[in-house]
Specification:
Structural class: alpha/beta
Number of strands: 5
Order of helices and strands: HEHEHEHEEH
Distance between the termini: 74 Å
Strand order of the largest sheet: 2-1-3-5-4
Length: 190
């Protein structure tokens, strides 16, 4: 190829820069689409539940993207802003081993304030779904099997928000006794 037929050197540089900008904008758009899809999934989980929540109610979640969506919605989606979500389970922090006590204490405190306690149906699942971002062994103090072993012992009421929604924790004498024992650390671990 003759020197006249080759594109100038600056043209190659411009094409390279254009390719990088195009790739970066596509990655950014993909990220926005994924975030929007995740936000919409979280909204679907709480849509039916929101009208049932009083000022004293709480949604208790483990390691759950809903808590992250709430945290990042301060300047964003008002449909998520202000939801009373409390995450009692964070991996690889000193409190991880105390999740039973933390959940139980928060539930008892909520009932004392006159609120309802709803918890994620995910906590009842025998196994986590792949899209729940659970990595077994990520924190050696916690196994997935420990979650349903604890939560299936509780008496529950109606469920809202579909299969990935929330279930009402009934305020019964049996639940109150179980949660008091768990808050004191006297419930046997599974």
């Amino acid at each position: 190829m003759s020197a006249e037929a080759r594109p100038p050197r600056w043209f190659k540089g411009l094409a390279f820069v254009f390719g990088i900008v195009l790739t970066a904008s596509n990655l950014g758009m993909s990220s926005i689409l994924l975030l929007t899809r995740d936000r919409d999934a979280q909204l679907a989980r709480v849509e039916q539940l929101r009208p049932r929540l009083s000022a004293a109610s709480v949604l208790l979640v483990g390691q759950d993207p809903l808590a992250e969506q709430i945290m990042h919605s301060a300047g964003g989606d008002e449909r998520l802003r202000g939801l009373p979500v409390y995450s009692f389970l964070s991996l690889n922090v000193p409190e991880t081993g105390e999740w039973r006590r933390d959940f139980s204490s928060k539930a008892l405190e909520t009932w004392s304030a006159g609120g309802d306690v709803w918890f994620s149906r995910r906590l009842l699942a025998e196994r986590p779904r792949a899209d729940w971002n659970w990595v077994e062994g990520a924190d050696p103090r916690l196994r997935w099997a420990d979650l349903p072993a604890f939560f299936t012992r509780l008496e529950t009421g109606e469920a809202l928000g579909g299969g990935d929604g929330f279930v009402l924790l009934l305020r019964t004498p049996r639940n109150e006794e179980f949660l008091r024992n768990a808050a004191e650390g006297t419930v046997a671990e599974s």
